[in-house]
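Lecture 7 notes: from sequence to structure.
We start with the chain below.
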Amino acid sequence: MKYSKILLCFGALWASSAFPAPAPCDTLRVAFLTDIHVTPGNVQDSLFRVAVDEVNASPCDIVIFGGDLTNLGSDAELEYVHGLISRLEKPWHAVPGNHETTWSESACTTFARIFGHDGRTAFRAGDYLFLGYASGPFMKMAMGAVRTEDLAWLAAEAAKARPGQRIVSLCHYPLNNDLTNRTEVTATLRRLGIPLTLFGHYHRAPSLFNFDSIAGIQGRALRGKSDSDAGYTLLDFWGDSVRVREKTLGAEPRTRFTIRMQDDPRTLALASDPTPPVPDYKAHAQLVLQDSATIYTGAAFYKDLVYYGTTQGMLRAYDTRRNREVWRQRFGGALYTTPLVAEGLVIAGTTTDGLRAYDARTGRERWHIDTPTPIVGQGLVDGRGSGAALYIGLGNGTMAKIAVRDGRILWRYDYGGGQSQGQPALADGKLVFGAWNGHLHCLDAATGKLGWKWTNGSKSLFLSPGNIVPRIAGGRVFIDAPDRAVTCLDLASGSVVWRCTDYKAREASGMSADGKTMDGELLAIDTVPDAFRRLWITPAGFGYDYTACPVTVSGGIAYLADRSGNVAAVREDGTPLWCVKCCNSAANFITEAPDGSLWATFAEGKIFRIPPHAPAGHKKKIP
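Predicted structure tokens for the same chain:
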């Protein structure tokens, strides 16, 4: 084995000078591992096995994992890495990172099943209480975010601290502007008397940060610049002090810094990120409601009722005229699928209870379909009356056509694996959808028979068209997958008409052939020629962005939103109209209501209404 010689000398290294006495004998010794990124058979797999053996031979009291345990967050990877972690002979605790929550095929339910919690974990060690929580992003590309309900949990658990017990925060993301609700999180920690947070995410040497006067200690990733530079972080706690050391595999630990947890001058001398801009939406949008939980679905409508789902597993029917809830249904897990309204029914895909249909007015269940795996994808309804049909992914590896009125499965297509997360598209009797298995699929909408499937050729499933909405026009399919290319395919055959990689387009498009680029620009493409032809490109007003909120076109205006709570409106001729900041979190969807208004949902639980044909003018100057 590559590290066999290193393994032979562990005992000598730890016994000689690995832990020179820096503190009283009641020091709590912690091995802090984060960003280990294990996939069966990869380099980190071998490196982590060495790290486990090394920690087992050490005097560490406890092992803490700061997230990004896997690469894809797949069920198989989670099972595998849990098996490796279980080889530890020390008590250990773990929180998920963005690689467990962003691409999870089980909507994070597998992590909860294997690790015993969905991100929230409280544990005592010595005179310290550690409070770990998830920091997302959840089920899509976005910045990190701590769920509203998790902040409430933090307060409840902090109240359980014993007299004299110090509290340490633990999550994967830094508590800076990479976290959308950073100011709310740091304010909560200050109010609860939590002076220190541990985190990962940044693949660099252990470092000290100032998060609004909260000390932040960043642990290093397992793999360094080279395989020989692999390692982890050691933390020695005593009283109000903590010493941070970097432990390269097979080498002696090196002290990076020692600080006091509370009000250390070295921490306070570091600059915090600037405070995010204040929302300025009132000229163009109205805040309709603020939920007590996080929202990752869009909104659906039936007369004066609006429907949406939350991460607390709540499907809510809200009367917008009377400003009150009419009915609710609660499920065992978070909702990521936007409800659909058709034939007097509200249909919701769930992560724990399959597919459910309810009377839109009363909330009474009309039918349901149980599924073996969670539903996280968006659905599409076509037709009316007895011919109304729903197309939706029924969990991992399955697409189905369902009769809306009674829930009969008209056909199902099993494509092997990977969630179909984005909404499918339907045209000329063909259903087109992408999945997190590297492929775009085209089925006969009447029979479910495969017509063709296409791949961009990448071996990385991260670049799959799993969360895109295919756009179909003139017998052609247009997609902008995470490979950052705009691709045009022939609808009949699936052959490539053209591909353009000149713009960093990713997972956000709309018709008329508008595509949002990662540079925060709106790109308009001509759908007719046999080669890529740009019509125009215009700044949206919010800079670099990668959130997967689709572009919505209504009344000749394209509406788009970003990862930081900004919404912009651009005319179909490329003229920017306005850009306003609604809040600080990622937008999910902008949905057109029957009256022509636009409804935008945001992760922090806010829902905004944009009036029909909102007046032009620059609320925020667009460069």
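Points to note: The chain has nine helices and 44 strands. The radius of gyration is 25 Å.
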